[in-house]
Amino acid sequence: MKVVLFANTDWYLYNFRRSLALELKRLGMDVLLISPPGPYGDRLLALGLRWEPVPMERGSLNPLKELAFLLRLRRLLMREKPSLIHNFTIKCAVYGSITGRLCGVRARINAVAGMGYVFTSTDLKARLLRPAVTALLRLALGGKDARLILQNKDDVALFQSAGLVDAKRIRIIPGSGVDCTRFVTRKEADRSPPLRVLLAARLLWDKGVAEYIAAARQLLGKGRKIRFILAGAPDPGNPAAVPVEEIGEWVKEGVVEWVGHVDDMARLLASVDIMVLPSYREGLPKGLIEGGASGLPLVTTDVPGCRDVVTDGVDGLLVPARSADALADAIAKLEDDPDMAASLGRAAREKVLLTFEERIIVRSTVGVYHELLGVP
Fold first, then answer.
1. Rounded to two decimals, what is the model's pTM?
2. What sign results for the dihedral spanned by CA atoms 69, 71, 75, 80?
3. CB contact burial 319-343 (16+ within 10 A = b; e otherwise)
4. Under 8 Å between Cβ of 334 and 341
Protein backbone atom coordinates (compact mmCIF):
# COMPACT_ATOMS: atom_id res chain seq x y z
CA MET A 1 0.00 0.00 0.00
CA LYS A 2 1.17 3.50 -0.82
CA VAL A 3 0.47 6.52 1.41
CA VAL A 4 1.08 10.23 0.74
CA LEU A 5 1.56 12.67 3.63
CA PHE A 6 0.97 16.26 2.45
CA ALA A 7 1.86 19.31 4.59
CA ASN A 8 2.45 22.99 3.99
CA THR A 9 6.06 22.89 5.30
CA ASP A 10 8.83 20.31 5.43
CA TRP A 11 9.47 21.55 8.98
CA TYR A 12 6.04 20.31 10.00
CA LEU A 13 6.59 16.88 8.46
CA TYR A 14 9.95 16.48 10.17
CA ASN A 15 8.98 17.76 13.61
CA PHE A 16 5.43 16.47 13.86
CA ARG A 17 5.00 13.49 11.54
CA ARG A 18 8.32 11.76 11.02
CA SER A 19 7.52 9.13 13.68
CA LEU A 20 4.23 8.37 11.93
CA ALA A 21 6.01 8.06 8.59
CA LEU A 22 8.67 5.77 10.03
CA GLU A 23 6.03 3.56 11.67
CA LEU A 24 4.06 3.30 8.40
CA LYS A 25 7.27 2.31 6.64
CA ARG A 26 7.99 -0.27 9.35
CA LEU A 27 4.53 -1.72 8.73
CA GLY A 28 5.45 -2.24 5.08
CA MET A 29 3.74 0.75 3.51
CA ASP A 30 5.33 2.81 0.74
CA VAL A 31 5.31 6.35 2.18
CA LEU A 32 5.83 9.56 0.20
CA LEU A 33 6.02 12.88 2.05
CA ILE A 34 5.34 16.07 0.06
CA SER A 35 5.61 19.74 1.01
CA PRO A 36 7.02 22.99 -0.32
CA PRO A 37 10.84 22.90 -0.46
CA GLY A 38 12.88 23.67 2.63
CA PRO A 39 15.90 22.63 4.71
CA TYR A 40 14.12 19.77 6.50
CA GLY A 41 13.57 17.78 3.31
CA ASP A 42 17.15 16.52 3.44
CA ARG A 43 16.65 15.42 7.05
CA LEU A 44 13.64 13.35 6.02
CA LEU A 45 15.66 11.78 3.22
CA ALA A 46 18.49 11.03 5.65
CA LEU A 47 16.02 8.97 7.71
CA GLY A 48 15.41 6.76 4.68
CA LEU A 49 12.03 8.35 3.92
CA ARG A 50 10.83 9.44 0.49
CA TRP A 51 10.24 13.20 0.31
CA GLU A 52 9.44 15.34 -2.71
CA PRO A 53 9.12 19.14 -2.87
CA VAL A 54 5.98 20.64 -4.42
CA PRO A 55 5.60 24.33 -5.40
CA MET A 56 2.74 25.31 -3.10
CA GLU A 57 2.74 28.87 -1.74
CA ARG A 58 0.93 28.98 1.60
CA GLY A 59 -0.37 32.54 1.34
CA SER A 60 -0.92 32.71 -2.40
CA LEU A 61 -4.27 33.86 -3.80
CA ASN A 62 -3.06 34.06 -7.40
CA PRO A 63 -5.56 31.91 -9.36
CA LEU A 64 -3.04 31.04 -12.10
CA LYS A 65 -0.42 29.90 -9.58
CA GLU A 66 -2.99 27.90 -7.64
CA LEU A 67 -4.29 26.21 -10.78
CA ALA A 68 -0.74 25.37 -11.87
CA PHE A 69 -0.08 23.82 -8.47
CA LEU A 70 -3.27 21.76 -8.56
CA LEU A 71 -2.30 20.40 -11.98
CA ARG A 72 1.14 19.54 -10.61
CA LEU A 73 -0.43 17.79 -7.61
CA ARG A 74 -2.78 15.88 -9.90
CA ARG A 75 0.15 14.64 -12.01
CA LEU A 76 1.97 13.53 -8.86
CA LEU A 77 -1.03 11.58 -7.54
CA MET A 78 -1.70 10.00 -10.93
CA ARG A 79 1.94 8.90 -11.06
CA GLU A 80 2.08 7.55 -7.51
CA LYS A 81 -1.46 6.06 -7.36
CA PRO A 82 -1.59 6.06 -3.53
CA SER A 83 -4.19 4.10 -1.57
CA LEU A 84 -4.48 6.96 0.94
CA ILE A 85 -3.58 10.64 1.20
CA HIS A 86 -3.20 12.26 4.62
CA ASN A 87 -3.37 16.07 4.51
CA PHE A 88 -2.33 18.48 7.27
CA THR A 89 -3.73 22.05 7.67
CA ILE A 90 -6.76 23.52 5.92
CA LYS A 91 -5.17 24.44 2.58
CA CYS A 92 -3.59 21.01 2.20
CA ALA A 93 -6.88 19.40 3.23
CA VAL A 94 -8.78 21.25 0.52
CA TYR A 95 -6.21 20.74 -2.24
CA GLY A 96 -5.17 17.21 -1.28
CA SER A 97 -8.70 15.88 -0.76
CA ILE A 98 -10.31 17.39 -3.83
CA THR A 99 -7.41 16.42 -6.09
CA GLY A 100 -7.31 12.98 -4.46
CA ARG A 101 -11.00 12.41 -5.22
CA LEU A 102 -10.48 13.43 -8.85
CA CYS A 103 -7.52 11.04 -9.11
CA GLY A 104 -9.39 8.11 -7.58
CA VAL A 105 -7.39 7.97 -4.34
CA ARG A 106 -9.21 5.36 -2.29
CA ALA A 107 -9.04 6.99 1.16
CA ARG A 108 -8.50 10.52 2.42
CA ILE A 109 -7.59 11.73 5.91
CA ASN A 110 -7.47 15.39 6.87
CA ALA A 111 -5.82 16.50 10.10
CA VAL A 112 -6.70 20.09 10.96
CA ALA A 113 -5.49 21.89 14.08
CA GLY A 114 -8.25 24.45 14.57
CA MET A 115 -10.08 26.52 11.99
CA GLY A 116 -7.12 28.58 10.87
CA TYR A 117 -6.68 32.25 9.94
CA VAL A 118 -9.65 32.44 7.54
CA PHE A 119 -12.12 31.47 10.29
CA THR A 120 -10.54 33.03 13.38
CA SER A 121 -9.44 36.43 12.07
CA THR A 122 -11.68 39.48 11.81
CA ASP A 123 -9.56 40.94 8.97
CA LEU A 124 -11.43 41.92 5.82
CA LYS A 125 -9.34 39.48 3.78
CA ALA A 126 -10.30 36.59 6.07
CA ARG A 127 -13.99 37.52 6.03
CA LEU A 128 -14.03 37.74 2.22
CA LEU A 129 -12.37 34.34 1.88
CA ARG A 130 -14.61 32.58 4.43
CA PRO A 131 -17.62 31.65 2.22
CA ALA A 132 -15.43 30.17 -0.53
CA VAL A 133 -13.23 28.25 1.92
CA THR A 134 -16.31 26.94 3.73
CA ALA A 135 -17.74 25.57 0.48
CA LEU A 136 -14.42 23.98 -0.46
CA LEU A 137 -14.04 22.41 2.98
CA ARG A 138 -17.47 20.81 2.78
CA LEU A 139 -16.43 19.25 -0.51
CA ALA A 140 -12.99 18.22 0.77
CA LEU A 141 -14.14 16.69 4.05
CA GLY A 142 -17.13 14.80 2.72
CA GLY A 143 -17.40 11.24 1.48
CA LYS A 144 -17.62 7.82 3.08
CA ASP A 145 -13.91 7.20 2.45
CA ALA A 146 -12.83 10.39 4.23
CA ARG A 147 -12.02 11.05 7.88
CA LEU A 148 -11.33 14.31 9.68
CA ILE A 149 -8.89 14.13 12.59
CA LEU A 150 -9.36 16.91 15.14
CA GLN A 151 -7.38 17.45 18.32
CA ASN A 152 -10.00 18.58 20.84
CA LYS A 153 -13.76 18.54 21.54
CA ASP A 154 -14.13 22.30 21.03
CA ASP A 155 -12.96 21.96 17.43
CA VAL A 156 -15.38 19.07 16.89
CA ALA A 157 -18.26 21.30 18.03
CA LEU A 158 -16.98 24.14 15.83
CA PHE A 159 -16.76 22.03 12.68
CA GLN A 160 -20.17 20.50 13.31
CA SER A 161 -21.86 23.83 14.04
CA ALA A 162 -20.43 25.17 10.77
CA GLY A 163 -21.94 22.19 8.97
CA LEU A 164 -18.58 21.22 7.53
CA VAL A 165 -18.58 17.49 8.23
CA ASP A 166 -20.74 14.63 9.44
CA ALA A 167 -19.95 13.71 13.05
CA LYS A 168 -19.46 10.03 12.20
CA ARG A 169 -16.48 10.94 10.00
CA ILE A 170 -14.62 12.74 12.82
CA ARG A 171 -11.94 11.15 14.97
CA ILE A 172 -10.29 12.90 17.94
CA ILE A 173 -6.56 12.28 18.30
CA PRO A 174 -4.77 14.65 20.70
CA GLY A 175 -1.92 16.04 18.64
CA SER A 176 1.09 14.34 17.13
CA GLY A 177 2.59 13.02 20.37
CA VAL A 178 5.84 13.56 22.23
CA ASP A 179 8.76 11.18 22.70
CA CYS A 180 8.96 11.17 26.50
CA THR A 181 12.37 9.49 26.45
CA ARG A 182 13.83 12.72 25.01
CA PHE A 183 12.19 15.08 27.49
CA VAL A 184 13.18 14.51 31.09
CA THR A 185 12.60 16.29 34.39
CA ARG A 186 15.51 18.34 35.67
CA LYS A 187 16.68 17.56 39.20
CA GLU A 188 15.78 20.16 41.83
CA ALA A 189 19.45 20.37 42.79
CA ASP A 190 20.22 21.66 39.30
CA ARG A 191 17.83 24.61 39.63
CA SER A 192 19.18 28.00 40.68
CA PRO A 193 18.00 31.63 40.59
CA PRO A 194 16.96 33.64 38.72
CA LEU A 195 13.65 32.09 37.64
CA ARG A 196 13.61 31.36 33.90
CA VAL A 197 10.28 31.61 32.06
CA LEU A 198 9.87 30.41 28.47
CA LEU A 199 7.41 31.08 25.68
CA ALA A 200 8.22 28.81 22.73
CA ALA A 201 5.96 29.09 19.68
CA ARG A 202 5.69 30.40 16.17
CA LEU A 203 5.98 34.15 16.60
CA LEU A 204 2.39 35.09 15.86
CA TRP A 205 0.34 37.67 17.72
CA ASP A 206 -2.39 35.10 18.41
CA LYS A 207 0.11 33.01 20.39
CA GLY A 208 -0.15 35.75 23.05
CA VAL A 209 3.28 37.24 22.39
CA ALA A 210 2.12 40.79 23.20
CA GLU A 211 0.64 39.64 26.52
CA TYR A 212 3.86 37.80 27.36
CA ILE A 213 5.93 40.93 26.78
CA ALA A 214 3.48 43.06 28.80
CA ALA A 215 3.55 40.57 31.68
CA ALA A 216 7.36 40.57 31.60
CA ARG A 217 7.46 44.37 31.73
CA GLN A 218 5.04 44.34 34.65
CA LEU A 219 7.02 41.83 36.74
CA LEU A 220 10.43 43.29 35.93
CA GLY A 221 9.05 46.73 36.77
CA LYS A 222 8.18 45.45 40.25
CA GLY A 223 11.80 44.44 40.78
CA ARG A 224 11.42 40.69 40.29
CA LYS A 225 14.59 39.00 39.07
CA ILE A 226 13.17 36.84 36.28
CA ARG A 227 14.61 35.96 32.88
CA PHE A 228 11.97 35.95 30.18
CA ILE A 229 12.96 33.84 27.17
CA LEU A 230 11.26 33.84 23.77
CA ALA A 231 11.93 30.94 21.40
CA GLY A 232 10.67 30.64 17.86
CA ALA A 233 10.98 32.18 14.44
CA PRO A 234 8.72 34.69 12.71
CA ASP A 235 6.35 33.20 10.14
CA PRO A 236 6.29 35.64 7.20
CA GLY A 237 3.68 33.55 5.38
CA ASN A 238 1.15 34.19 8.16
CA PRO A 239 -0.79 37.48 8.35
CA ALA A 240 -0.49 37.40 12.16
CA ALA A 241 3.34 37.27 12.13
CA VAL A 242 5.20 39.40 14.70
CA PRO A 243 7.64 41.74 12.88
CA VAL A 244 11.32 40.95 13.50
CA GLU A 245 11.98 44.65 14.07
CA GLU A 246 9.57 44.71 17.00
CA ILE A 247 11.23 41.66 18.57
CA GLY A 248 14.56 43.45 18.24
CA GLU A 249 13.16 46.44 20.14
CA TRP A 250 12.04 44.19 23.01
CA VAL A 251 15.52 42.67 23.20
CA LYS A 252 17.13 46.15 23.26
CA GLU A 253 14.73 47.15 26.01
CA GLY A 254 15.98 44.19 28.05
CA VAL A 255 12.52 42.77 28.64
CA VAL A 256 13.11 39.46 26.86
CA GLU A 257 15.86 37.21 25.51
CA TRP A 258 15.14 35.95 22.01
CA VAL A 259 16.87 32.66 21.12
CA GLY A 260 15.23 32.27 17.70
CA HIS A 261 14.36 28.89 16.24
CA VAL A 262 15.47 26.00 18.46
CA ASP A 263 16.00 22.49 17.09
CA ASP A 264 16.80 20.86 20.42
CA MET A 265 13.71 21.71 22.47
CA ALA A 266 14.53 19.05 25.07
CA ARG A 267 17.75 20.86 25.93
CA LEU A 268 16.08 24.28 26.07
CA LEU A 269 13.26 23.02 28.29
CA ALA A 270 15.77 21.42 30.65
CA SER A 271 17.24 24.89 31.22
CA VAL A 272 14.05 26.74 32.26
CA ASP A 273 11.66 26.68 35.23
CA ILE A 274 8.23 27.60 33.85
CA MET A 275 6.64 27.27 30.41
CA VAL A 276 3.89 29.64 29.31
CA LEU A 277 1.64 29.79 26.27
CA PRO A 278 -0.89 32.65 26.39
CA SER A 279 -2.46 31.63 23.07
CA TYR A 280 -5.90 32.76 21.86
CA ARG A 281 -6.79 29.31 20.50
CA GLU A 282 -4.97 26.06 19.65
CA GLY A 283 -5.60 22.67 18.14
CA LEU A 284 -3.36 20.96 20.69
CA PRO A 285 -0.10 22.80 21.45
CA LYS A 286 2.87 20.46 21.12
CA GLY A 287 5.25 22.90 22.79
CA LEU A 288 3.09 22.91 25.91
CA ILE A 289 3.04 19.11 25.91
CA GLU A 290 6.84 19.03 25.57
CA GLY A 291 7.02 21.37 28.56
CA GLY A 292 4.82 18.98 30.53
CA ALA A 293 6.97 16.03 29.47
CA SER A 294 9.94 17.96 30.88
CA GLY A 295 8.20 18.23 34.26
CA LEU A 296 7.66 21.98 34.03
CA PRO A 297 4.74 23.83 35.61
CA LEU A 298 2.61 25.17 32.76
CA VAL A 299 0.81 28.48 32.49
CA THR A 300 -1.59 28.81 29.61
CA THR A 301 -4.93 30.28 28.63
CA ASP A 302 -8.38 28.85 29.24
CA VAL A 303 -9.10 28.36 25.53
CA PRO A 304 -9.69 25.37 23.23
CA GLY A 305 -6.61 23.20 22.85
CA CYS A 306 -4.72 24.70 25.79
CA ARG A 307 -7.26 23.58 28.38
CA ASP A 308 -7.06 20.08 26.87
CA VAL A 309 -3.43 19.96 28.05
CA VAL A 310 -3.72 21.78 31.39
CA THR A 311 -6.19 21.26 34.22
CA ASP A 312 -6.13 24.37 36.38
CA GLY A 313 -4.46 23.79 39.73
CA VAL A 314 -3.68 20.16 38.93
CA ASP A 315 -0.88 20.20 36.35
CA GLY A 316 -0.65 23.90 35.61
CA LEU A 317 -2.47 27.22 35.80
CA LEU A 318 -5.10 28.55 33.42
CA VAL A 319 -5.55 32.28 32.88
CA PRO A 320 -7.97 34.28 30.71
CA ALA A 321 -6.83 34.91 27.15
CA ARG A 322 -5.55 38.39 26.26
CA SER A 323 -4.88 39.27 29.92
CA ALA A 324 -1.29 40.28 30.64
CA ASP A 325 -2.22 41.01 34.27
CA ALA A 326 -3.51 37.46 34.86
CA LEU A 327 -0.45 35.99 33.14
CA ALA A 328 1.88 38.07 35.33
CA ASP A 329 -0.02 37.04 38.48
CA ALA A 330 0.27 33.34 37.60
CA ILE A 331 4.02 33.58 36.97
CA ALA A 332 4.49 35.46 40.25
CA LYS A 333 2.43 32.83 42.08
CA LEU A 334 4.72 30.05 40.86
CA GLU A 335 7.84 32.02 41.74
CA ASP A 336 6.53 32.63 45.26
CA ASP A 337 5.50 28.99 45.83
CA PRO A 338 8.22 26.65 44.50
CA ASP A 339 6.61 23.61 46.16
CA MET A 340 3.39 24.18 44.23
CA ALA A 341 5.40 24.71 41.03
CA ALA A 342 7.21 21.40 41.54
CA SER A 343 3.95 19.57 42.26
CA LEU A 344 2.31 20.94 39.11
CA GLY A 345 5.37 19.94 37.07
CA ARG A 346 5.26 16.35 38.32
CA ALA A 347 1.55 16.08 37.51
CA ALA A 348 2.13 17.56 34.03
CA ARG A 349 4.72 14.87 33.29
CA GLU A 350 2.31 12.13 34.44
CA LYS A 351 -0.47 13.42 32.20
CA VAL A 352 1.80 13.49 29.15
CA LEU A 353 2.94 9.91 29.78
CA LEU A 354 -0.66 8.70 30.04
CA THR A 355 -2.27 10.75 27.26
CA PHE A 356 0.16 12.37 24.84
CA GLU A 357 3.06 9.91 24.54
CA GLU A 358 4.11 9.56 20.91
CA ARG A 359 3.53 5.81 20.64
CA ILE A 360 -0.08 6.20 21.80
CA ILE A 361 -0.77 8.90 19.19
CA VAL A 362 0.91 7.03 16.32
CA ARG A 363 -1.01 3.86 17.20
CA SER A 364 -4.32 5.78 17.15
CA THR A 365 -3.49 7.40 13.80
CA VAL A 366 -2.52 4.10 12.20
CA GLY A 367 -5.84 2.77 13.46
CA VAL A 368 -7.67 5.32 11.29
CA TYR A 369 -5.60 4.17 8.30
CA HIS A 370 -6.62 0.57 8.95
CA GLU A 371 -10.26 1.59 9.34
CA LEU A 372 -10.32 3.23 5.91
CA LEU A 373 -8.19 0.67 4.10
CA GLY A 374 -9.83 -2.37 5.61
CA VAL A 375 -6.61 -3.62 7.18
CA PRO A 376 -7.16 -5.69 10.37
1. 0.87
2. positive
3. bebebbebbbbbbbebbeeeeebbe
4. yes
